Hints:
By secondary structure, the protein is α/β, with parallel strands linked by helices. It is 40% helix and 20% strand. The protein folds into 2 domains: 1-119 and 259-359, 3-Layer(aba) Sandwich (Isopropylmalate Dehydrogenase); 149-258, Rossmann fold (3-Layer(aba) Sandwich), CATH 3.40.50.2300.
Amino acid sequence: xxxxxxxxxxxxxxxxxxxEAVNVLEAVGRKFGHSFTYEExxxxxxxxxxxxxxxxxxxxxxxxxxxxxLLGAVGGPKWGSDKPAEQRPETALLAIRKDLGLYAxxxxxxxxxxxxxxxxxxxxxxxxxxxxxxxxxxxxGIYFGQREKYETPDRGMEAADRxxxxxxxxERIGRRAFELARLRRKxxxxxxxxxxxxxxxxxxxxxxxxxxEYPDVAYEDMLVDxxxxxxxxxxxxxxxxxxxxxxxxxxxxxxxxVTGSIGLLPSASIGDTAPGLYExxxxxxxxxxxxxxxxxxxxxxxxxxxxxxSFHLAEEADAVERAVDAVLDQGWRTADIAEPGVTAIGTxxxxxxxxxxxx
Length: 359
Ligand code: IPM
Ligand code: MG
C-alpha cells in the first residue's frame, strides 16, 4: 500500500523531530512493505515569514488530499500575541483543526516501563502504573466562541469569550471516549464544572445518556478541579478521561508531566472523515531549536498513532512502540530525559537507534 502524508514541519524543533519521524516511517515501510509519499505543507510562524500569514490559502485542501497529517510544532516568541491574528501560529493550529473537523484529540499519558524513575510522584504512586487516555474535545467551546473587547463607561476595557456546546458536539466526543474505553480498561471519567457552568450541565446530561448505551463501561463524573488534584494524587485510577476543549488543554499538560517527560508523548486529532492529524504534545522549544538536542520520541510515537488510527496498521504501530521502549531500556536518553550522570544523545542519534531497532 502507498500512503500519502502531509508533513507540517513547522517552527523551532519541529523540522528536526519530523525529520526523525519520517526516517522511522521509511524504516517501517522497508520492514513491512509499505510506501509513503510526502506532501510538504507550510503552516505556522515559518509560513508567516514566507508568505505573510500563518495559515496560507489552500492549506486545508492540501491536507485533505492526503491520508494523514504529521505536524512537528508551531510557534515561537517571534510571532507573539502582539502580532495580528493571521500572523500568529496558534491561529493556524486552531484553523486546521476546525477545517479538517478534528473534534477528537487523543492524548495518551503512559509511564513507559524504562522511565518509571522519571515520574515526579511518590514511588508507591508510580509503581501502581499510569496509563490513561485524555480525550479532549478540540473544535468547540471557548476556543471557538465569539470574542469581544469593548470599552465600558466606568470600568475601562472589558473582554469576553463565549463558551458554547451543542448536544451534537458533546455526543460525538462522548461516543469516541466510550468506544476507546471498550478497547482499554473499560472506564470513562467525564470531567466538567457542572456545579457552575451551564455547558457542563448539558455535557453531563449527554454523557449520562451515553453511559446507559455502554453498560459494559464503568462511568463517573468528575469536577475539573478535583480531576486536577486526582491526577497528581493517584493517576493510576484513570483509564479514559473525556473533557471539553480548554479543560482538556490544561489537564493534558498536567497528565503528561506525571509521566516524566512531555518529550515522550504523542497525540492524535481525528474527525469523522478528513485525514487525522498527528503531533507531539510538546511545543516548538525555540531555545534548543537547530541544536540536535530535541527528543524525537513524541513525534515518533505520533507516527505509531498514525499507523494505528489512520492506516489501521496495528502490527506496524506496535513495532514502532516496541522499538522506542527497547532503545529506552538500553539506557539511551536525550537531554530532556537524561538522569544526572547519564550522557545524553542527540535528536539524530535517537532517531537512528530507533530505526536500527525496528529493522
Ligand atoms: C495544545 C496547545 C494549543 C492549544 C495552543 C498552542 C493553541 O496548547 O495543543 O495543547 O491550546 O490547543
Ligand atoms: Mg496545550
